[in-house]
Every structure is written in C-alpha cells, then in structure tokens.
Design goal:
heterodimer; A: alpha/beta; B: 364 residues; seven-stranded mixed β-sheet
C-alpha cells in the first residue's frame, strides 16, 4: 500500500526532525554539557520512522543504546530527551538513565537497554503480555547487527514462534559493531531468513528506503495483529558516524573512507527529499517551513534542558525499589 | 488491586510462635502450591512459567496440578533458554503481568544473570521510577545423591550483592507460603532461593491468604548467651543445636532473617547487643558470601557489644563434590553449628589462658 501524501509528508518530517536533532547534539557534544555517551542515529532514520509510522500509539517498542531515533519516531517527548542527555531532573529518566536509557510509558516505550541484545527478550515479553490480554498491541523490537550475534536473539524468536506472539523483530544492520565489521562476526546470511514462513515472516530490505521499510513494517504489524505470529525484518543501512560521540571522535583506520562516502550518497533523508520534490508531493517552501519549525523546537528543548535542575546527591538512593 | 484484600502476617508456630490455626498441618510443597493457587485465582495477571512446571512431579510438587486447574496460558513449560525467558518474564511484568518463573536449581540462574542483574534489578532505578518489574524468580538448591558441582550450588551470595533485587530464603512451611505471596504482591523483582531439605518439612499453615513482610526476620528461639543467625534449612539445624546445648546450660538465641535483602539488621543487632556472641550459618560459600556481609555489618554496628570474635559456619570454598564421602566433608549442620557456638562461648576462657601464657612468657 502506497502511503498517501499526508503520510509521506509526516514521515519525511519525522526523519528530518531526527536528523536535525542528532546534528544539534553532535554540534554541542564537545562542549561537555551532555555528560553521557551518545550513540547517534544519523543515517538510520528511515528504519525507526518507517516502522513507527506503521505502529499505533499504544503499541510497544524496545530499543537499545542507539536509542534516540526509536524514542523520537515513536513520539517520545523531545524536551525530556534533551534534558536526559543533560542528566537533568526533568529528563525522561530523571537523570538516572542518560542517553542509553530512555523511557516514555505514554507511547509504549518501557525503557531501552544498553546491553547489546538485552532489549530483545524484554520486547518478546511485552508481546507475551499483549497476547495474554487479547493480542491487539504489537511489540516492535529494534536491535543492531551486534545484537544479532547474541544467542538471546535465537532464544527469543524461537519463543515468539512457539507462542505465536505479536512481535516484529527489526534488525538494523548498519555493518559496524564499534570497530568490528559484520563480515568478521557473521558466517553467512542471517539464519532467520531460512525460517518456515508460517512460523516467521522474514524480509531483507533496503533500510535507507523509507517506503520499503514502511511497507514491510505494515505487513509485519498486520500479521502480528491478526494473531499470525512474529516477523523478522533485516534493514540494511549504515552507521555514518562512529560508534559513539561525534564525527571527530571516530577513530581512524578501521574503515575505508570511500565506504562512508558511498553510504552518505544513500542518505535516507536526502533521497526521500529528492523523491518528494520530484514527484511534487512537497514544495521547497514546505521543506523550509519544516526546517524552521524543527529548529525552533530544538532551541526550545535545549533551553529547557539547560534550565532544568540537576538531581541532588542526596537523591542517590531514590527509585531503587518501587513502593 | 486484588492484592490489597489479602490478610497481613501471623507468626510461625513451629518454633513456639503464635499462629491462629494450630491444627492444619501442611507439607512444604503443598504450602507453596496453595499460595500459587490462591494468587492465580485472585489475580488474572499472575502466571507461572518454568521448565518442568507441568511435569508429573510438578517442581517437587509445588506446581503440581496447577496447569490442569488454570490452563496452559497461565501455567506453562518453557524452552530451556534461561536468558531469553528471564527477559520475557521482565517484559511481561513491564506489560502489566505478574510472572512467577520457576527453576529447579539455582545453578541455571547463572544463565539468566544478564536479565536478572543488568535488567530486572535496575529497571526501576535506571528510568527514575517510571517503570517497575513485578517479577518473582524461584529456584531450589539441590543437595546430596552426588548432585555435584553444577546441580547443588547455594548461590545466594552472588545475588545478595545486587542492589534492586529482593532476596528471600524461607525455612518453614508457613514462611514458604506467606513469603511467596508477599513476593508476588511486591512491585519489584524478588528472587526466592529455596532448599530441597525444606521440602521434607510439614508445618502449620493457615488456609487463608496471608503475606509476611519482606525484610523482617524472626526470632526462632530466645536465649541470653549467644546469637545464631541461620539461613534457610540451617534454621532447623541451629534450633536443634540450641536445644541440645540448653542441657549444658548455654542459652542460644536463633534468628532467621527470612529475607537477606532487605536484611533485618535491627533484629540481628538487638540480639547481638544482648548476647555479645554470634555465630552466622549459611549454606553458601564462605568467602565474599552471606556470612561475610552479615559479620561485617555486626562488626561495624555492634563492635562494642562483642565479647568474642564472630564465628562463621559456611560451605568450604570448593565446588560441591559428588562422592558421598567427600559430600559428607563438604556439608555441615547441627554438629558444626554446635562447635561454633561452643567456640564463641569459650572465647573468654581461651583468651584469659593466652593472656596468662604471654604474661609468663614476658616474666620468664
């Protein structure tokens, strides 16, 4: 199903917004006001936006250390994100989590894990809870190619197939785990592409093509909602920046500059912009208006974060247990 | 929440405490099963999972018949994948459920450490209280019949180290039910480490639903001379040791912490301040374990009350051997606790003797 004009505009806006937010974080990062390791999402925006655009507000997502894109695409509060990066009290995790541990229960985001693969079984458990309650909430589980090295992915998908859970597993294959290339870690194609189709719907898609991601996600989500079980979507993409921090903090020598350059040409945001302009879905003026709106919103979020109070040392032992 | 309707605690009768029902004798496994049945009936969000919970033997009897009664969606066998299934339980808890995940050995919890330690125990704190994980994990220490190094480990020391995880070690039928229900009612991850030897017991257990407070210990026997803090099935061993020593004129106070985290420090310190002598007995390894932590706490907070060094009775720092002669050397009970009590009692005498010896040495 081809999304309508409004949906396309919405998706472009969401991608552009995530890109600009990442860029602002990157440009401010060396000022050391955000004292938390940031793992930026530049180059992968089409995946979070494509999947989350196909989800409903109360559907669940599970995220990882590269957490900003999923949180924002699902509708997480921007002020609370930027405040969390500043480790402030009005951050989404009140300064206890930092960049890797984002949460917004109002949009079905119950917390991201920075243990690679750690969120996969938790997202599976959310799908189990949903199924026990009638199965109308889908659980979308985001993880990278590093997490696909972990045995827990096999364990989780096996359980989701066994129990026919409403789960969608989204592998964001960005080719790099810190400085290890996927070819140094994987013997061949992912085994889940060999699964029996009635147990697991499996697709390998261009993760930089928002419409391809959206289409596959719609199919997987629809399958989950009708009670037919889980899906596995491998989205091929690329980590434009280094593992953590900004571009200047990426160590040299582990990857070919030509590789990065080639992938920059496949930019999901730029390419979708070109497409929308070409097919006249949007005008340049509309895009300029979007840029202005986003910039104002980002300025506001940073101002909010800078003003927000820091948690006091005496609050160290708060929240250890829930009463 | 239906959990607000269940009654508060009453005391364990086995050790002379008051309990309103003094006639209803129930086996240990039936006490657990009764608690589970009542929780499953009370709250549709409660479910029971674990490898073998639907076996004919039903987790030593504790889950027997529950699947027939509550169906396969609420009581189900799992793949052996402990890492993922613990994460699944965490996720289900985040989704509003109250999972109770059974393991027939704590050894297998080592495969679940990532989800228990990195995830469940941190989730409430790490997100500033925005989310919580009402999860119960239960595992039962094996002992004897050559169970050996990987099927009989008492690993509570590892979990005792972890902030954000409540840790319960029951010792009586009454506690097994009341603490299980308290764990299910709790909004945090709770680990119950039980012991196969407890399953030999019958005890007085009321039929009604009740919970016992997590973090409150119990005095199992009062005494003025020496305090024994004993964990899990060693409570019974310590109690018997105390009864035998009473004939020799030593009055031992036996304290059952019931929950290790939070630990009822006040109850222990109160007793130590009274007696001045203390023995700590735990089924786990000695180094860096439960006895070490409790001893450090006492040494720091009741130093001036101590009349003798703190004695620790714990497993030797080796894996559990299989052979029965080696097993006999590894395990301990009443006899070793008695020896430790007498050592603490005799300390002054020894100390006086050694002082005398050193005086003579200097004089000579």
């Amino acid at each position: 199903m081809n999304p309508g004009v409004e949906k396309k505009k919405e998706m472009f806006y969401a991608m552009l917004r995530i890109r600009r937010i990442q860029e602002r974080i990157e440009s401010c990062y060396l000022q050391d006001e955000m004292k938390t390791p940031v793992h930026l999402y530049i180059g992968q925006e089409a995946i979070a936006v494509g999947v989350c655009s196909a989800l409903k507000k109360d559907d669940y997502i599970s995220s990882n250390h590269r957490s900003h894109g999923h949180y924002l695409a699902k509708g997480g509060d921007l002020r609370a994100l930027i405040a969390e990066l500043h480790c402030k009290k009005e951050g989404c995790s009140k300064g206890y989590g930092g960049s890797m541990h984002l949460v917004d229960t109002s949009i079905g985001h119950l917390g991201s894990s920075s243990i690679v693969g750690g969120g996969i079984p938790i997202g599976t458990g959310l799908a189990l809870a949903s199924k026990m309650n009638g199965g109308q909430r889908v659980s979308a589980v985001f993880f990278g190619d590093g997490a696909a090295d972990e045995g827990v992915l096999y364990e989780s998908i096996n359980f989701a197939m066994l129990k026919t859970l409403p789960a969608v597993y989204i592998l964001e294959n960005n080719h790099w785990s810190v400085c290890s290339h996927v070819s140094a870690r994987k013997a061949g194609d992912n085994i889940f592409h060999q699964a029996l189709p009635d147990l697991l719907m499996s697709r390998k898609i261009d993760g930089n093509n928002i419409l391809a991601v959206y289409q596959a996600a719609l199919e997987a989500i629809e399958r989950a909602r009708r009670g037919s079980g889980p899906s596995f979507l491998e989205c091929e993409t690329y980590r434009i920046l280094g593992h953590a921090g900004c571009e200047s903090q990426d160590p040299e020598g582990y990857r070919d500059c030509a590789e990065v350059k080639a992938w920059k040409k496949k930019c999901p945001v730029d390419n979708f912009r070109e497409q929308l302009l070409k097919e006249k879905t949007m005008t340049p003026a509309e895009i300029t208006a979007m840029e202005i709106k986003i910039e104002i919103e980002i300025d506001d979020a940073f101002a909010f974060a800078r003003k927000s109070p820091l948690p006091a040392g005496r609050e160290l032992e708060n929240h250890l247990f829930c009463e | 929440m239906p959990w607000s309707r269940i009654e508060a605690d009453c005391l364990e009768p086995n050790f002379g405490n008051e309990c309103e029902d003094t006639t209803r004798l129930v086996s240990y496994q039936d006490a657990i099963r009764e608690g589970l049945r009542q929780a499953l009936a009370l709250d549709p969000n409660v479910f029971v999972m674990g490898q073998g919970v639907d076996d004919p033997s039903g987790m030593f009897g504790a889950t027997r018949g529950l699947q027939e009664e509550f169906g396969r969606d609420r009581v189900f066998d799992t793949p052996l994948a402990e890492t993922a299934l613990t994460g699944v339980a965490v996720g289900a808890a985040l989704g509003g459920k109250r999972p109770v995940y059974f393991h027939n050995r704590p050894d297998f919890l080592l495969l679940a450490m990532d989800q228990l330690v990195n995830h469940a125990s941190k989730w409430h704190y790490m997100f500033g209280g925005a989310v919580n994980v009402p999860l119960v994990v239960w595992a039962c220490i094996g002992r004897g019949w050559g169970s050996a190094a990987q099927h009989s480990q008492a690993l509570q020391g590892l979990f005792f180290h972890v902030p954000g995880l409540k840790l319960i070690m029951p010792s009586t039928c009454f506690d097994a039910k009341g603490l299980l229900l308290a764990a299910i009612k709790d909004n945090n991850p709770v680990l119950i480490i039980d012991h196969r030897f407890n399953f030999k017991q019958n005890g007085l257990v009321p039929e009604k639903m009740y919970t016992l407070p997590i973090g409150k210990g119990q005095i199992r026997r009062t005494g003025k001379d020496v305090t024994v803090v004993a964990v899990s099935h060693l409570v019974v061993e310590a109690f018997q040791a105390a009864e035998e020593l009473a004939a020799q004129g030593v009055e031992t106070e036996v304290i059952d912490p019931r929950t290790l985290r939070p630990l009822d420090e006040a109850l222990i310190l109160q007793s130590v301040c009274k007696t001045g002598r203390v023995v700590i007995a735990d089924t786990g390894w000695k180094t860096g374990g439960v006895t070490a932590e409790i001893a450090a706490m006492i040494a720091q907070k009741a130093f001036s009350s101590l009349k003798a060094p703190i004695e620790r009775v714990a497993s030797p720092d080796v894996p559990t051997p299989a052979g029965f002669t080696l097993e006999e050397a590894f395990y301990f009970g009443k006899k070793k606790i008695k020896q430790a009590i007498l050592k603490a009692m005799n300390y002054n005498q020894l100390s006086a003797k050694s002082k005398e010896a050193s005086r003579r040495c200097r004089a000579g």
